[in-house]
Amino acid sequence: FPVTIYQVEAIIYIAIVSVIIISVFQFSIEFQKSRTRFVIASKQNAVVARTLKTIDYLVRNSDGYVRDASSRICFSTSTLWLYFATSSTAYVPPGCMWPETSGAVGIQRYATGTGGGIQLTCYRGYPNYGQAATCASDPPNNGSTTIDMMSPENFYFGQFDLGFTTTTVGSKEAIETDISVGTLPTGLAFDIPTTSASTTSIFRIVP
């Protein structure tokens, strides 16, 4: 059968429309990926900024490190223990030390089957109930409370790195905190860049 000019035009028109539809569909997919990346990256940035700000606040208002039975400073690159005397407990989260008048806090990462996070543990009653037998054990306490520092955003996250380093700023002792937060690719067809940041916090007293 002879092909008419109208049929040729119809075929060309259908081809053009098909290309446009495919292009729009691909653009929509890429747009959704970009939007998802932006939303998750924004949450990562917010979590890192808030966590570093909290750690900086606690270090600056603490009364130094937790110490062991020999009065040696307890310091670990993976866990930060800080002492809060009676005059400083107003700087810890509400209810953290109640009903005691002094205590300590520990900041460390934790792991779960689907990832992990960063938690703050309140140890009520330190040092009235004695100093740590060793720096490998929790500070003596009259009860403890654990707070998830990532909640509620921890649903999105699964890859963490948290580290502490002693340093000095001028003549004052300080702590450098490094945090990296990534998102597990579960259910995603693309990766999310890891957010990394650090802060240096100066002790207000000789720790």
What distance separates the N and C termini?
95 Å
- Report the mean per-residue pLDDT as an integer: 83
Query: So what's the oligomer here?
Result: single chain
Radius of gyration: 27 Å
Tell the overall outline: elongated
Total beta-strand segments:
7
Determine the number of helices (DSSP H or I, runs of at least 4 residues): 1
Strand order of the largest sheet: 1-2-3-4
| Protein structure class | alpha+beta
Strand portion: 25-35%
Uncertain parts? none
Helix content: 25-40%
Major β-sheet annotation: 4 strands, antiparallel
Can you write the helix and strand succession as a string? HEEEEEEE
Q: What is the fold's blueprint, element by element?
A:
Elements: H1 5-61, E1 79-84, E2 103-112, E3 115-124, E4 144-148, E5 159-169, E6 172-182, E7 195-202
Antiparallel strand pairs: 1-2, 2-3, 3-4, 5-6, 6-7
